[in-house]
Amino acid sequence: MYDHENPDDFGSDQLNKYERRFARPRSRFWDSERARPSRLTPVAIDRSVAKKIPVRIQEDRNTCVSFALTDAMQLLLWRERRKKIELSAGYAHWLFNRSEQKPWCKDDAFSLAKGTLLLHRYPVCTTDYCSNTLPDCLPQDSNSLNPSSEARKAAQYGIADFFFIDRRYVEKSDRLTPSLDGPDITNTNYLECILSQGHDIVLALDWPLTEIGKGPWSLRRNKLDGFPMWVPNACSTGHALVVVGYNRIGKKPVYGADKEPYFVCRNTAAASDKNGITYLTYDFVRAYALYGVVVLKVRYFLK
After folding, report:
1. Which one, of 88, 105, 231, 206, lies nearest residue 155 by Cα?
2. Which of 16, 37, 188, 237 is the most exposed place for a label (fewest CB within 10 A)?
3. What confidence score (pLDDT) does residue 233 get?
4. What's the mean pLDDT when you consider all of the chain?
5. Distance CA 45, CA 298 (A)
6. Could you give the CA distance from residue 90 to residue 88 in angstroms, rounded to a whole number?
7. Which residues are CB-contacts of 166 (< 8 A; sequence separation ≥ 6)?
8. Tens of pLDDT, residues 246-276
9. Are 140 and 103 in contact (CB under 8 A)?
10. Are 188 and 255 in contact (CB under 8 A)?
11. From CA 24, how far away is CA 27, in angstroms rounded?
């Protein structure tokens, strides 16, 4: 994703005009006539399947977008085919860097939206042909680093159908105000509707560095009234992870409160909780989510 030290740079990874064309809500998730989610949802959903599809760790590289997107794709393949297929995050990152004419070994930040559109056009291979790790950068040959010809021939998995979930612009002082009246990334009722129908959501987050290490992730709260608050002077960093469930009654205690609703996420960052599962409270998502993507179908590219 992106990395910045300016707290006023909130939303620097927003969807552009072209990407918003793919943010139209689907009727099975959003009832446009009644302006509400299309169905009632259960109080809790959890599809973390950590034992069947282990969460991979990206270590200290800025490769969360390639890890999150390929994770969402392989989870969908598991549900469709009941077969474990590990897609190469390293190969996906090579595609991303190639689009910007950068060496494969560079782990510069990359937009989740751009990555989604690239995987809609180009396929990735499995880890049988290309590992998840990036090669080391050597001055003499960094520009010539590429996956093997076998890996490129074996690349056949891409994104066939997807849609973005946008965040309508709000003023910095109102960033905790949820948009409960539309198909918005801050509308937790809408996100519940998508998750309850068997789909995962890849989130792009404006992650506050002051919260890292506090997990499960919540917002700091005002000691007087308990209202969630964000730290105005906090540095932040972009991050992407996969939301696979939620709990509206908040049985699990989280940082900052005894009980509150939370989302269940597969997080490839090294700072995630046990088995790579992280819990984000509803207030955290309302405050820091920039947009999301829902992968509806995986495409098989025939060679």
Report:
1. 88
2. 16
3. 41
4. 78
5. 23
6. 5
7. 15, 20, 23, 184, 185, 291
8. 988 876 655 545 578 888 888 887 655 567 8
9. no
10. no
11. 9
The pLDDT assigned to 295 comes to 96
- pLDDT in the model for residue 274: 61
Q: How, if at all, do strands 220-221 and 228-229 pair?
A: antiparallel
**Overall average pLDDT of the 99-125 stretch:** 91
- Inter-residue contact 197 to 241 (CB < 8 Å): no
Q: How long, in residues, is the chain?
A: 303
Query: How would residue 46 be classed by pLDDT, with cut points 50, 70 and 90?
Result: confident
Any residues with CB less than 8 A from the CB of 123 and at least 6 apart, and which? 155, 156, 157, 158, 299, 301
Longest CA–CA separation in the chain, Å: 62
Return phi, psi of residue 297, to 5°: -155, 140
The DSSP 8-state label assigned to residue 175 in this structure reads T
Going by C-alpha positions, the residue among 255, 253, 251, 256 that lies closest to residue 226 is 256
Indicate the residue type of 149: S
0.90 surpassed by pTM: no
- Torsion 131-137-141-144 (CA) sign: positive
Domains (ranges, CATH) in the chain? Answer: 3-21+36-300 (3.90.70.10)
Report the helix count and the strand count for the chain, using DSSP H and E.
6, 12
The confidence score (pLDDT) of residue 88 equals: 94
